């Protein structure tokens, strides 16, 4: 899940604009809260005039009841369901919406808004059957047409969402996405050919360009979240900033947005599975890990993700050490190269940089043990993992590879910039260590380029501004090699296009694997493609992080999964999360 969406990466590439001095009440007076949506009970700090008649209320927040406060480092750049891609964006949307399917605690795809689904005989049509009586949080009926519109809006060139290509398996989606939105006739013709229809309120039919056995899992993603057309049109381009317009169908309902500080959700009593145990959830934004840790100690946060630099002190603390929750992350971090810029168009230069990175020391000493070294893209335990030792740390091979490059050594290399988040105090010592490695082993002087986090996020989303070298990575959207390989690395994938990776042989293999119904043959094809990716060394694969959290003993009912990047229990435990009072 999380779509190019990674907590560790966000600390390097995205940042809040405002640091809060304390987190107790999220400094309500420092910003004007956006009022709650129609039908929601006023929260503290709001006036009754901000909401509609309480007789319409379907979302309640009993005063002084169970409120879970979760720390997040970076405020979302966008939380529009059809435009989002980063983990902090998805964390907000996942509270408020739900797709046709969802993942359980074992990361199996299970029914959500759809109670069942089936493929036709050749696997090219999947029919979803919605539950009876589905409603939005305000009581409005939720029909199949709402999900059809979500697909259309994702594929729409006017939306141009960052996960648009994940729906290119749908007949007509890629063609629609590539249509000139200013050519009204062509635009409308392409829209009409989109292979998704809602013949009745409880049936959604999706026609695929090829067999796609993984597609029911894609239906769990935010691109399927049924944001309401009339509310989007009412709010215009920035509709998603207003919780009055973010009327969702998830376990919780967004009721308040204090930009750069907090987003608040309350329990949705119209959710099909019933009411969550928690009355409310607040995501608290604070970029300074030292400030957030003090807030956690003071009881102002219930879940906090410490920076690796804080782990030694936490582990030596008799109380805090008992509150550490650690679980594997289905995430890979790499040192990402822009493959359209010199010197990284030269494979031998890329090999030299891969051989020269001491991953073991970086994880153990620089990151205080919060990760495990890796030499490949797909993590252990996920189908498609190979177990390679190619491009492991070897200074002699690093020097040899650079000497064999067209540059012949370090002296003729162009300037190389490592772009990093200037607002993260932990980022500079890490990039200084990386620059030192390349100076000492290869004789290459790296220029460190500090950029504020929000600017860096924007740079990484645009192929014309993607940095020459920066930290990047991926956390799975779902536990399938199709998500790790096809979604990210194919020539037409949004992500690969940003930094210029394209290998036709790789594409042929993953395309075959995507359509193969025999699971054993399918995984073997993905392994072959994964080996090609490793051989291409598009940027050194560095490490698989651990998810490490401090969680108050009063918090119960959560079952962390490797996909839970935003907080433990993010995907399988929203209904069971609880706080002892």
What does it look like?
The protein has 581 residues and is α+β, with helices and mostly antiparallel strands. Helices cover 28% and strands 18% of the residues. The strands form six sheets. Strands 12, 13, 14, 15, 18 and 19 form a six-stranded antiparallel sheet that branches. The protein is globular and about 65 Å long. Mean pLDDT is 88; it is low at 1-61.
Give a short summary of the structure.
This protein has 581 residues and is an alpha+beta fold. It is 28% helix and 18% strand. The chain has 19 helices and 21 strands.
Largest sheet, if any?
6 strands, antiparallel
Helix content: 25-40%
Question: Which structural class do the helices and strands define?
Answer: alpha+beta
Q: How many β-strand stretches?
A: 21
Tell me the span between the first and last alpha carbons.
Answer: 32 Å
Mean pLDDT: 88
Radius of gyration: 24 Å
- Stretches where pLDDT is under 50 for at least 5 consecutive residues are 1-61
What attributes characterize this protein structure?
581 residues; alpha+beta; six-stranded antiparallel sheet; five-stranded mixed sheet; 28% helix; 18% strand; globular; disordered N terminus
List the helices and strands and how they pair.
Blueprint: H1 7-13, E1 59-60, E2 67-72, H2 87-96, E3 101-103, E4 109-111, E5 114-119, E6 125-130, H3 144-155, H4 173-177, H5 184-192, E7 196-200, E8 203-207, H6 215-218, H7 229-235, E9 252-258, E10 262-268, E11 280-285, H8 289-297, E12 303-304, H9 311-316, E13 324-328, E14 331-337, H10 347-355, H11 359-366, E15 371-373, H12 395-404, E16 416-421, H13 427-442, E17 446-451, H14 453-461, E18 469-475, H15 481-484, H16 486-489, H17 494-499, H18 504-515, H19 519-536, E19 541-551, E20 555-556, E21 578-579
Parallel strand pairs: 2-11, 16-17
Antiparallel strand pairs: 1-10, 3-4, 5-6, 6-8, 7-8, 9-10, 10-11, 12-19, 13-19, 14-18, 14-19, 15-19, 20-21
